[in-house]
Amino acid sequence: MLPSLQSFYDINYITVSLVFFSPLIGYISSGILNTRLHKALGQRGLGVLCGGTHMLSAIINVLHPPFPVIVVSFMLGGLGNGLSDAAWNAWIGNLDQSNELLGFLHAAYGVGGIASPLIATAIITRAALTWYTFYYFVVSLGGWVVEFLLHVRKGEAFASGMGATGYWLGITLGRILLPFVTNLIGLKMAVTVYLAAAMAAELVFWLAPNFYASIVAVGLQGFFIGPMFPHAMSAVTSLLPPHLHVVVIGFVAALGGCGASLLPFAVGMLAQRFSVTALQPFILASLGLSLAIWLFMPHAKKGNAFF
């Protein structure tokens, strides 16, 4: 999708990166409004509101308006994501076997991530339709990995798009399978191992100058990164009393959304300055920082899955 947006609107890396940055405003708004809306509407009402903001965002994109309006539509998507993250993670995090259930919840998101680049790439490269046709089907954005495979690894357009599908397939499988491993070795140790493995896969993706090695590496990276968000939600519910779950999870989800907006935007700025090869050291540094922060997380009481 990124190459198609750049071509359609005739914009550079920094400008197209605004579609990553603009959801930040939506996520911040969700963090501010989450508690009030949850009390006023309840979880069902909040679910309807989340779906409505996503639908409105997709309708705007279908109309392929001027690029500034596209940026605004992604703000609405960020608002819907932030509100839904808080509502459903808080609810499922309080259920029995929350690790596995959160894994399945976020695996459903991963299924959408698998389908979206597959559909988008087929629409653009095989059916020769315009990028906004994709929004008749599903809303997602493959990210910078397609740009890297296309321009650095010199992959064919369709095969490069499949790289994003492989990444999301890895995420989905990781969210389904790894929570069962996590329960055997504990949450703290498991996430430490997963992040280290993701860093190893990132090194292969960066240093192995082969298209197919890069495809495999990015899939493995998705596999080990996959359970990070649901496991973080599980850690929050393990460490905090129930009456704080909705508020804190809403804040954590909004903070995560801010990172998901700011970091790809930063990659776009680096790509404009140094080319898209700046992606790899940036990802490796981000994973290393995540591991360092995780190691400083406190332990829960003994007997808890996080211990």
TrEMBL record:
The source's domain of life comes to Eukaryota
How is the protein disposed in the membrane?
Multi-pass membrane protein
Q: Which residues cross the membrane?
A: 12-33, 45-63, 104-125, 131-150, 157-178, 211-232, 244-266, 278-297
Where this protein primarily resides, as one coarse class? membrane
Location(s), subcellular:
Endomembrane system
Keywords on record: Membrane, Transmembrane, Transmembrane helix, Transport
- List GO molecular-function terms, semicolon-separated: transmembrane transporter activity
Record domain Major facilitator superfamily (MFS) profile: where: 119-307
One cellular component (GO) term of this entry: membrane
UniProt lists the family membership as follows: Belongs to the major facilitator superfamily.
Q: What is this protein called?
A: Major facilitator superfamily (MFS) profile domain-containing protein
